[in-house]
Structures are given as C-alpha cells and as structure tokens.
C-alpha cells in the first residue's frame, strides 16, 4: 500500500500541466531522433541535457526519460521502412521488419513495433515499481561468469533451433567475433587486427556501421539487381480496418512479448549490457521457441514484436541500478546519471528516502510517457507508410544519403563511411550465397561483452575454467547453451531412425 500511495503522489507530480507537456514534447522529439540513422537515445539526451537547467530537476529528468522512451519507439521506424536501423537497439527489428515492408505489410510491422514497445514498457515499469530494491540486489549477484554464460546462451539460440544452415550460422558468428576483436586490447592496450596500422581501426568496428552497411547498402544493391528492368515502388497502404486487424493480431503474440519483456528488463539491469543485447537475445529466443523458426528473417511478425518489447523493457530496467545503486546500465543512463549529479541529486538507496517526490515523479512519468508514445506512434503510422510509396529512384537515393549520414554522424570519420560501403558489398555477396546476416551482427554486438566477461573471470579465478560451471547461475546457463548447441546433431541422428521405421 505504501508503494501505491507513493506512486499516487508521483502521478500528482508527473500529471501537472508543465510535466505533461514535457512528456508529450519529449516523446515526440525522441521518436524523430530515434528514427534518424546514426542518432538514437544517447545523442538525443546529450543534445538536450544543457537545456534542462531552465526547468526544475524533476521536470528535467522527466524530459530526458521521455526522450529516451520516444527514441526506443522511433528506432523501429527506419529499420522497418528503409532497412536502416535508426539506433543500435533496433538492429534486430530490421531482420523481419524490412522483409514485412517489402511484402506490403509495413503498416502491420509498425503496429507490431508500437504495441510491443508499449507492452514491454508497461510490464517493465510495473516490475520497476514493485520490485526495485530486491531486483537491484539480484543484478549485483550477476558477475562476469554469469554474463559470459548468458551471452553464450544467446549465441546458441541462433545455432541450435534456427531454420538457417547451421554451418553457415556458425561461420557468420565466428566472422562477427573476429570483427569484434578489431581495435585496442581492453586489458593490455595493444592494437589487434588493425590491417597494416590503419588509424581508423584503432577504435574498433561499430556494430551500427556493420548493420547500416549489410542491411542498408546491401538492400539497395539487391533491390537494384532484382528490379533493374522495371523500377518498382514498395507496395504499402494502411486503412483503419487494417489498423484494427493489426491490433487484433497482436493478441496471438503474447508469448513472444512476455518473454521479451521479462528478458529485456532483466538484461537491462545488468551493468554494461543494455537494450541492444537484450533485443538480440529476445529475437533469438523467439526464433528458438517458434513453431516456424524457418520463417524468421523472411517477414515473421514475431521477429518484430520480440526485440521491440525487449529493448523498451531494457530501457526501463537500465534505470533501476542507476537510481538504486548509482550504476548506469547503458550509455544513455550514464548521461542521465550525470544530469542528476549536476542537479545536486545523489543516486543510491538514500535517494528513495531523501527525494521521494523526485523518484516517484520519475517512475510515474514512465507510465505517462509509455501511453503518450504509443498514441503518438500509432497516429503517425499512416504518414510513415505513405512515405514508402515514393518512387524507387527517390527512395533509393534517400536511403544511400541516410546510410552515409548515419555512418558519419556518430564518429565523424570518413573511415566509417568507407567501411559501410565495404560491408554493403560484402553483405550483398553473402546474401546471394544464402549466408544469414543476423548472426554476424549479433556476434559483433555481443563479442566485446563476451570477451570482457571471460577475461575478467579468468583473472579473478586465476585461470580456472571450471569456475564457469561451478557457479550455480552460470553453470545452468552453460548447460542450456550446450543443449541448444547439440540440438541440430540430435535432430540429425533422429532423422535416419524415422526413415527406417516403415521398412521395419
């Protein structure tokens, strides 16, 4: 009851006219920031942070949280419409969102993304409200060994139960892991795989650069090839009847959205994890538990719903360790933490006692921002779909420009633009050879986290590899990962037995 009373007081703060206006403005701005390739929630919060001194601290953090939420919603827009992830958190949405748009189902994909984001955001805020303190303690029990085992489990969900060629999937994961090692060694500081001492490789390869290249440029090259004789316009339309049908279709996705919500919230709580690994893990699990895993990557609506629920749930989950322990769970929450320090607030357990108006005002604003985001997003879907109906020549040129801008903006280095071009050509060739691209991106995203957690464990345990299986949580994750990895072999062994049954 205390929680409900505190939450009611929080709503009194967040529903004041000024804060309500701030939520709507923040969500709308975040939606467009998230939809712009190369920007995303980190850039949006960083740009607006200096402006927050003109409003009270509670209103300032509500504005930044609303931008964060809106950017999570907006990242899916360009992923679905153009095949270019608006932010790293929306990379997994591209896998099935773009094929749905090419099949004339862009409206349904955008509805799925909006509703799934709302579900993920709502479940995670409820979890945040009810279990903030014990969940923060659980997150602290996750050490490097558990993080390594969890990442390993994410890889095996792609290998074990997917519909793609297993050998090709393993090859693409290994290629992604190799690309993840490019740059300076995190512990020794020595350069690795810098290709003849090229300075651009010292900072490593951004997964956003890879995703924009293989999905953005690669998609343009593939479309030019397939429509060279008759330039086409992507078939896209959306009526109110289809909007209602799309909302009803979301009912059958409850399993994917539930898994994505809880997984995303939990992964979001882990320091150094964040929404991008959460969305990729949720995609892998949705694919693994689907009755039709072979349809993933070809326009399965579950492939849109699962990562979108996870990345929104993770955005809320990452706020939890920041508020309760002062440990940011993602780059964006690190900026929010910096803002709180600037406003004279000290994150930690005492924050809930000393500043209840601020804390519960922020929590209640997450509910408000979630509702505002889904309403604004659904209202703008017809506009987004209409944009797809422009001539192919115009759309193609626009995609290329956005790819270049999206690659150049984060680092402002031409090196990344050339990398995008190279990855685009490579992605086009790999696609023609029927190699899956999702495991490549997954490995580049999770590779650094996997390497860091592995080496931290090895240092802490003095080289004892058994430490991964001796700890209960990491041992359980590794056991499930081993089962997933061996599943294709078990399936292969069962097939001859089935064929022999009639002859007997």
UniProtKB/TrEMBL annotation:
Query: What would be one Pfam family of this protein?
Result: TctA
Q: Does the keyword Transmembrane apply?
A: yes
Q: Which UniProt keywords apply?
A: Membrane, Transmembrane, Transmembrane helix
Which segments cross the bilayer?
Answer: 20-39, 46-69, 75-95, 107-132, 138-162, 169-188, 200-218, 262-286, 325-346, 358-386, 392-410, 417-433, 473-490
Question: Has the keyword Membrane been applied to this entry?
Answer: yes
Domain DUF112 per the UniProt entry, residue ranges: 20-442
InterPro entries recorded for this chain?
Answer: DUF112_TM
PANTHER family for this protein: BLR4373 PROTEIN (PTHR35342:SF1), TRICARBOXYLIC TRANSPORT PROTEIN (PTHR35342)
This chain belongs to the protein called: Tripartite tricarboxylate transporter permease
Supply the source organism for this entry.
Halovulum dunhuangense
Q: List the taxonomic lineage.
A: Bacteria, Pseudomonadati, Pseudomonadota, Alphaproteobacteria, Rhodobacterales
